[in-house]
Design goal:
By secondary structure, this protein is α+β, with helices and mostly antiparallel strands. It has one domain: 2-Layer Sandwich (Muramoyl-pentapeptide Carboxypeptidase, domain 2), CATH 3.30.1380. The protein has helices at 17-31, 66-79; strands at residues 2-4, 35-39, 56-61, 84-88, 93-97. The chain has a five-stranded mixed β-sheet with strand order 1-2-3-5-4. A hairpin with a 4-residue loop joins β4 and β5 (93-97). It is globular. 30% of the residues are buried.
């Protein structure tokens, strides 16, 4: 199950956004742990992120267990198509479509 924080905004439902949400929901279903969508096109983010373009998602796990977040990160890193960056931040998993940086994608 995906749970969206009340402040989450999506400007446009894009083709780049859908694989992120689909794969996060697949992990949630397999693990029986809700995935919390913390941010898409809302809030304040670093200058280098692509938040605001409807192709970036910050994900967390219900219960904030470090093991669950690491598992979500490893899964997303393996299943996201080429051209997506998957970054394990301190308290969330940041996933964004960035074809210009595809060569820097986490292996």
């Amino acid at each position: 199950m995906l749970r969206f924080e009340p402040n989450v905004r999506i400007h446009y439902v894009t083709a780049e956004l859908l694989p992120i949400l689909l794969n996060a929901s697949m992990w949630s279903n397999r693990m029986g742990i809700a995935v919390v969508v913390n941010s898409i096109d809302d809030g304040t983010h670093g200058a280098r992120t692509r938040h605001g373009l409807s192709n970036t998602v910050d994900l967390d796990t219900e219960g904030d267990r470090a093991e669950d977040l690491e598992s979500l990160f490893q899964y997303m890193r393996k299943v996201m198509p080429e051209g997506y960056d998957v970054v394990h931040e301190t308290d969330h998993v940041h996933v964004e479509r960035d074809p210009k940086r595809a060569e820097y994608r986490t292996p």
